[in-house]
């Protein structure tokens, strides 16, 4: 499981010309799964996300978590995080988990995360237009396996 975390000032996702999810301060999470991912991977990364200290404290040092600042999450499914570009110029997505299994894990991830913070989402598998005002910019890749 991979999550690309972007610290955000304001972000939204549009599907069919309608805003389906939006947040003010918090994280935009681009979330992808591979074939061997399980609930254990989700639990590990939910814990990482809620405790990741990348918000500024009163001294301007990244020392606060999303829980500390009362931020929200915009979670976007993103199978392209598992793109393999080692051969040629056209990415292969063979390492990405298929949609039927992936949607179950994605929904489980969002449900578990929502126990700690407010979570908005896009629509799994839809053509989404994501607007991100990246704060910093701060962008960090989290992975459940080394």
Verbal overview:
With 146 residues, the protein is α/β, with parallel strands linked by helices. The chain has 3 helices and 8 strands. Strands 1, 2, 3, 6, 7 and 8 form a 6-stranded mixed beta sheet that branches. Helix 1 (39-51) crosses helix 3.
Give keywords.
6-stranded mixed beta sheet, alpha/beta, 146 residues, globular, two-stranded antiparallel sheet, 38% strand
Give the helices and strands, then pairings:
Blueprint lengths: L1 E14 L2 E6 L2 E7 L6 H13 L3 E2 L5 E3 L1 H4 L2 E6 L21 H15 L5 E3 L7 E15 L3
Parallel strand pairs: 3-6, 6-7
Antiparallel strand pairs: 1-2, 1-3, 1-8, 4-5
Write a brief caption for the model.
The protein has helices spanning about 40-50, 65-70, 100-115, and strands at about 1-15, 20-25, 25-30, 55, 60-65, 70-75, 120, 130-145.
Q: What composes the largest sheet? A: 6 strands, mixed
Low-confidence stretches: none
DSSP helical segment count: 3
Q: What number is the mean pLDDT?
A: 96
Which percent range describes the beta-strand content? 35-45%
* Element-level helix/strand string: EEEHEEHEHEE
Percent of residues in helical segments? 10-25%
Computed over alpha carbons, the radius of gyration is 15 Å
N→C terminal distance: 10 Å
Please count the beta strands (DSSP E, at least 2 residues each).
8
Structural class: alpha/beta
Globally, the shape reads globular
């Amino acid at each position: 499981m991979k999550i690309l975390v972007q610290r955000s000032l304001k972000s939204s996702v549009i599907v069919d010309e309608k805003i389906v999810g939006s947040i003010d301060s918090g994280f935009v999470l681009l979330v992808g799964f591979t074939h061997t991912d399980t609930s254990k991977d989700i639990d590990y990364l939910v814990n990482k996300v809620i405790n990741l200290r990348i918000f500024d404290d009163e001294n301007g040092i990244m020392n606060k978590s999303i829980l500390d600042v009362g931020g929200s999450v915009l979670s976007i499914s993103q199978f392209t995080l598992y793109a393999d570009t080692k051969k040629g110029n056209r990415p292969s997505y063979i390492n990405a988990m298929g949609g039927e299994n992936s949607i179950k894990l994605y929904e489980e991830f969002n449900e578990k995360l929502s126990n700690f913070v407010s979570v908005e989402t896009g629509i799994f598998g839809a053509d989404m237009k994501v607007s991100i005002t990246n704060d910093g910019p701060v962008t960090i890749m989290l992975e459940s396996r080394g």
